[in-house]
Each structure stands twice: as structure tokens, then as C-alpha cells.
Amino acid sequence: MRKALRSLLSLVVLIGTVGAAGTATAAGPDSGTAAGTGTTGTTGTGTTGITRTTGDIKDRILAIPGMSLIEEKPYPGYRFLVLGYTQPVDHRNPARGTFQQRLTVLHKDTSRPTVFFTSGYNLSTRPGRSEPTRIVDGNQVSLEYRFFTPSRPQPADWSKLNIWQAASDQHRVFTALKKVYDRKWLATGASKGGMTATYYERFYPRDMDGVVAYVAPNDVVEKEDSAYDRFFATVSTKECRDRLNAMQREALVRREPLQRKYRDWAAAEGATFTTVGNLDKAYEAVVLDFVWGFWQYHTEAECAAVPDAATATDEVVYDTIDKYAGWSSYTDQGLQPYTPYYYQAATELGSPSLRVPHLKGLTRYGYQPARNFVPREIPVRFKPWVMRDVDNWVRTRARSMLFVYGGNDPWGAERFRVDRGARDAYVFAAPGANHGANVSGLVEAERTKATARILAWADVAPAAVQADPDKARPLARYDARLDKRDIEREQTLRP
């Protein structure tokens, strides 16, 4: 992105937020915490030594131009706000219209750091903490990705769905909320959310003080996917691989009787196949996702639970494929909520394609391109330079970035790397972990190092941790309701 355009955008954002309430940070809990009830101002001295005025956090956030309240939900120790924010459809030309983008704020205290989270998909409107938020005991701002409903412009100009526009959404939200939350900020997300956090850092490297990207795929060259072939040829044990491959093969050998069951199910559910083309294409796509789906969300220990294909009835084969891949995935109804993802995969992100030699002679379509899962009326053109640019930037210019992968997660076969040009940047993998890999699952030395760096980036590392990083631990206690990671089970090839 040209520097002039970025400077112009920053100026527009700053002008748009100049009417926001004044910044306010106190050393202790301010009146915006769950314990606070007043809307009148109080004063306190922040850790910077500057005396600031504080007020009710909801009032201060809603004073930001373009910000509106959808609802507030109670949670002990926090304020949780579901909000709407007016965004330009095109950040390069704000005069071309606006749309409402949803976000949430899990507010603890303005004296704490803030974590900027995105899933890269829809927004959860239930209170929840990402792992970095728990580590730094901070606030969390979560943003819905543009074009995922209801955060979709009407009418939808799909050419405005790209990683730069989405990063600019984040930049504008950050610039507005930085007036309220003026301490350190970290960006985070898992899978497509980890990709999103990385792209945001690439385009706006001065916004965040650190980035924690979980299980983020990095498809640098769209037509070169040998890393995935190597992964599936070597993951786990031969016995486990053979067991999974046999079940996948059996589903194609029994295509005719199983498709009758599939057709009956589709008729009963009212499922249609206009986007993918026909039921046969959808059937094969689901079967091809079976092994991938197993490793994305399950572990080697669960391999023995997969039935023996040679002795399984048609019913068992059908139900097993459904459990790990989902027969609804490639119906029009299953694809429709994820049109924004498939559009991005077909235009910028890329998508995997495997050789599957154990299915030779049984496949009719192979791994279908992402374009097949986007309605035909939406124009698509792939831009191969986009991911190459991001990859080169991360390898040579990454600063204060942490990438966490699962050792047995197929999406980690093509991962981000950091080279000599990067500074204070790390790539760690949790042994045996799947798509739910996180910092707590790393080996001890990497876990404490990662935790120490996150605390340092947020400027909340205790003196003991500064003296000895091996003592690094999350600052907030585990809360089963807030911290249970609800992995969105994308039973198709979606990160």
C-alpha cells in the first residue's frame, strides 16, 4: 500500500474520531469496570504519572462518532458491550458508502492492556477471552470480519472484500478506541483469525505492540501444495493413516448406495446443490475432506475409534464420513454463510489441493478450487502476488510476532516463517496438537518464553518475570466460562 494513501487514511480516521471522549486511565479500577456504577468523572494517576479523568466506559465508547450500542451483557468483573461501528465500504474512497460492522468490548480496566481479536469470520456475541487476554489480564476488543453477515454492505460490492480493506477496518477501530484504551495493544486470532492478525500487522505495523497468531496457514504459491502431501504421508503412524485412508476409499467405492442415502437426506432437509453444481460433486468433496477433518479437530489417540472400513456397513461408513466431514458442508445452505471466505480463498488466500494416491481411479473431480464454492454471479480473479508480499514481509520485517502451530494440524503444513530480517519474532509448534494448538500446549521452554514475550509486549511483565522469563505465567486465573476455547468446527477445508 502506498505511503501517501496510508497517510491520507490515517488523517481521515483521526479527523473522524476527534470528537471522542477524552482519554482516561487510572491506576486502579475506574468507574467503567463492573464494580463502577457512576457516570460522573473521577480522577486518578496512571502508570505514566499523568492524571486523567475517567467516566463510565459505555458512555465514553459511545461518544466515539459512528459507534452505537446493540446490547450490554453482564459478566462478573467485566463490562461486555456488543456494538456497531460505521465503516466505509471502501477505505480508499470513503464517499462510496458505509456499512455497520459489529464488534464487542470485554472491558476490565483502562489501566490494563488491550487485545484485539478476530476470528476472521462471524463475531461471537457471548463474553469470552482469547489466550493472550488471559495472559496479560486485559481488555479485549473483538471485530467481525467484513462481509460476514450482518457486517455486510448492501448491496455487496465483492471487489471491496480483500485483506487490505479488512486490515483498514481494524486500523480504524483501533484508532478510535485508542482514545479510550491508551495502554499497549496486542493483535490475535486463530486460523483465519491468525491470518487476519498477520495481515493487519503487515499493512499497519505501527498500530500493535505485538501479535500472537495461532494456527495461521500461509499459502504462498497457490498451485504448489506438496507440503500438504508430505504431511498426510507422514503424520502419526502408518496404522492410523491406513485406517483413515481405507474409510475414505470405501466411501468412494460405495458411492452409489451411499449417494442414495445422501439424496434422501437432502430431499428431507430441503438441501440444494446449485453453487457446487450437483449432488455428485458435493458428495465427493465431503469424502475428500474426511481425513483432513479428522486431523484438524482430533488426535492420534482417537484413531482407533474410526470403524474398520472392510467390515463396516453402509450405514456406518455414511455416519463416519458425516461425523468428521459433514454431509451438509457443500450444500447451498452450508456454503452460503461462508461465501466471504471462499471468495477470499479464490482471490487472495489460496486453498489446498492434495494428490491422494490411495484414491486413484475413484475420484471424478479431485480437490475442487475455491471458485467452485462461490456463486457464479460473483466475479472472481486470483491475485497471486498478495500472499507472496505478506510472506516476504513476515520473513524479513516481522517485529514482536509469535506464531503457534499444532504439530498434527494439516493447516500447519504451510506455515509462516521468520528469517534473519525479523526481530523478536518466533514460530513454535505444540507436539501432537491439532487446530486448537495454543501457548499452554507448547513444551515448557517455549511456553514460558512465549508467555514472557507476550507479557513484555503488553508492558505488564512482573519484575520476577523480567529477571527470570522461566517464571512467566498468565496473570489472570482460568475461568471455564470465559476461557474455554470454542473452536469453530469448519468441517470442510476452511481454516
Q: Could you report the average pLDDT, rounded to the nearest whole number?
A: 90
Radius of gyration: 24 Å
Q: Helix fraction? A: 25-40%
Distance between the termini: 26 Å
**The biggest beta sheet, please?**
9 strands, mixed
Q: Note the overall shape.
A: globular
Strand and helix order: HEEHEEEEHEHEHEHHHHHHHHHEEHHH
The count of DSSP E runs of length 2 or more, i.e. the number of strands, is: 11
Main structural class: alpha/beta
Strand order of the largest sheet: 3-4-5-7-6-8-9-10-11
Assess the beta-strand content as a share of residues: 5-15%
DSSP helical segment count: 17
Q: List segments where confidence is low: pLDDT < 50 over at least 5 consecutive residues.
A: 1-53
Write structural notes for this entry:
The protein has 495 residues and is an alpha/beta fold. Helix content is 35%, strand content 15%. It is built from 17 helices and eleven strands. The protein has helices spanning 3-16, 57-62, 131-136, 163-177, 192-203, 226-234, 238-253, 255-269, 279-288, 290-297, 314-324, 332-335, 339-349, 385-397, 444-457, 463-467, 480-483, and strands spanning 42-45, 51-54, 67-75, 78-88, 98-107, 114-117, 139-143, 185-190, 210-214, 399-406, 423-430. The chain has a nine-stranded mixed sheet, sandwiched between helices. A two-stranded antiparallel sheet has the order 1-2. Strand 8 (185-190), helix 5 and strand 9 form a beta-alpha-beta unit. Helix 4 packs across helix 5 and helix 7 (238-253) packs across helix 11 (314-324). The chain is globular. The relative contact order is 0.12. Residues 1-53 have low confidence and may be disordered.
